[in-house]
Amino acid sequence: MNWNAFSSRGRSARGPLAHRVVQAGWRWIQRRGAVTAEQPGGHRFGAIGHGTKLTFPQGTVFGEPWIRLGAHCIIGEQVTLTAGLMPDLDLGPEPILTIGDGVVIGRGSHVIADTTVRVGSDVYMGPYVYITSTNHSYDDPHEPIGKQWPRMEPVEIGAGCWIGTGAVILPGARIGRNVVVAAGAVVRGDVPDHAVVAGAPARVVRTWDAAAGWQPPLRTPAPRPIPSDITPEQLLALAEWEEEGA
What does the record give as EC number (predicted)? Predict the structure, then answer.
């Protein structure tokens, strides 16, 4: 039977090969486009720790000299990191945006530091989290809100927090250590250590102390801890085995 490149047979033969070529090419671009301490690309951060990676493609990034990233951080795709109201400003001798060691920032998140924003170590964020130290003001009812000078307040997020998908952290927020911020929560003001906050505006829905434990009590049993003698190599092998069996 005669056939050509435009026949269904030709398309079916070429399709898988083209797919593999595109996928391999995209993975190559992702590797080459990632920003690390060893491969900074066009970005010149105030500091970028060992093992930290900004995955490709990046979101908007400017004010890099006033951004300090700790070690072993994972910055997901399309994450915006900015210091200052706009590019090419001189922001002085001190960092504006500081991110600790071991921080994970999920895909599509924004960290907007027009004034000081500090994120402690081992903070994990889901996708599309929005953190900002600036808010619009609307004091003058006759002037467009976008033309009024914004209000700025520092933001602090303590070590060990989990910030759920779509959460918003507003100017002036001071979040303690090991806090859970529920998905979609809108946080402002002070949040104590070892708390769970949810809602818009966010409120504390669960707290912990050494004497009483979690109040109200947790409804689910604690997960079994990973055995202390297991190695990272064994964990990786287990993950691969589970993927093959899926």
Answer: 2.3.1.-
pLDDT along the chain (246 residues), means of 10: 52 70 76 78 86 91 94 94 85 92 96 96 96 93 92 96 98 97 97 96 94 88 80 75 56
Is this prediction's pTM over 0.85? Answer: no
Q: Would you name the residues annotated as active-site residues?
A: 136
Q: Select from 133, 84, 81, 132 the least CA-distant residue to 103.
A: 81
| Size (the chain), residues | 246
Per-domain residue ranges of the chain: 23-217
* The dihedral formed by the CA atoms of 195, 165, 243 and 14, expressed in degrees to the nearest 10: -170
Distance of alpha carbon 114 from alpha carbon 87, whole angstroms: 11
Strand order in the sheet with 35-36: 35-36, 53-54, 74-75, 104-105, 124-125, 162-163, 180-181, 195-198, 203-209, 213-215
Phi-psi region of 212 (alpha: psi -120 to 50; beta: other; left: phi over 0): alpha
Tokens of 33: 């486009």
User: What is the rounded CA–CA span in Å between residue 188 and residue 173?
Assistant: 5
